[in-house]
Amino acid sequence: MSFHDTYRFGVHAIIANADGKLLLLKRTYGNKGWSLPEAGSTPANRMPRRTGHHPT
Length: 56
What we know:
By secondary structure, the chain is mainly beta. It is built from one helix and four strands.
């Protein structure tokens, strides 16, 4: 097992609308709790140097 098989990058996002309401996801499996949107990355994915998005 190599480093890439054991550890992977993951991210969570905090997404809010103009009223300050947050986007949450309700799981339909496991503990069925609420969570922030999330995603994982595989070794084949490359992280962008910058997104070009600048909050106002």
